[in-house]
Amino acid sequence: EVQLVESGGGLVQAGGSLRLSCAAAGFTFDTYAVGWLRQAPGREREGVSFITTSDDKTYYADSVKGRFTISSDDSKNTVFLQMNDLKPEDSAVYYCAAERGVTAQAMYYITRGSPRYKYDVWGQGSQVTVSS
To answer: What is the model's pLDDT at position 91?
Structure first.
């Protein structure tokens, strides 16, 4: 079965850090872009960070630049999102998603234009809660 398995969410105080993991099962990330998207209650889904796994090019939303870092470990077929200096407004359910044959930048703009776009593969979602 093709799926993404997430781990690493939780509760943290403002200014703290969390790392999310997204592991591919049943396929490899070779020709995919992988992204982290988030959705807070009452708000539209938004793209946070994206990576093209073939060349490790990355793309970030302005709201997380300088605080979040996306990376990939090809040997583990896993993508990570390191989140530092977390703010209460970062609280949301975070989803990883993978799309074949696109770049990180393309995935960012697809999400921006169509927040409900159905990418090829999705993770189950991870709750991130940042207390003030």
So the answer is: 98
What mean pLDDT is predicted for residues 60-64?
Answer: 96
Name the CA radius of gyration of the chain, rounded. 13
Torsion of CA 77, 123, 63, 71, to 10 degrees: 0
pLDDT in tens, 102-114: 999 999 999 999 9
For 115-125, write each residue's pLDDT tens digit.
999 999 999 99
Judge whether 20 and 65 are in contact, CB under 8 Å.
no
Q: How many Å apart are CA 106 and CA 127, to the nearest integer? A: 26
Beta strands (DSSP E) in the chain are 3-7, 10-13, 18-25, 32-39, 46-52, 57-60, 68-73, 78-83, 92-100, 121-122, 126-131
